[in-house]
Amino acid sequence: MQKQGYPEKNYLVPTKRYCQTLRLKDNPGLIAEYRKIHSRMEAWPEIRAGSTSSQKWKLMERMFYLYE
Fold first, then answer.
1. For every one of its 68 residues, what pLDDT tens digit does the chain have, with 9 covering 90 and above?
2. Helix (H, G, I), strand (E, B) or coil at 44
C-alpha cells in the first residue's frame, strides 16, 4: 500500500506542531503590512530562534500558518 500525504520531518527531540488560521480584512495594504511584520526577517528573535520550520499559505483573505 502506498503511503499518502506529505513527508513527515524527523527531529532529534520532541517537537510540537502549531497550526493557525486567520481571516484577514479585504485590504491589500493591511495584508501587505501584516505579512511584512510577520515575516522571518521581522519576527522577534525568540520566535526565529525557537522555530525549526514554518510555512505560510494564503488563499483570498485566508491565511494558514504551520510552525514546528
1. 566 766 677 778 887 888 889 898 888 898 888 888 877 778 777 777 766 677 778 888 888 888 77
2. coil
Helix (H) / strand (E) containing 35: helix 28-37
Collapsing DSSP states into helix, strand and coil, what is residue 29? helix
Tell me the three cell numbers of residue 50. Answer: 525557537
The alpha carbons of the chain give a radius of gyration, in whole angstroms, of 15
Q: How far is CA 48 from CA 7, 8, 21, 41, 42, in A?
A: 23, 21, 20, 9, 9
**What pTM was computed for the model?**
0.55
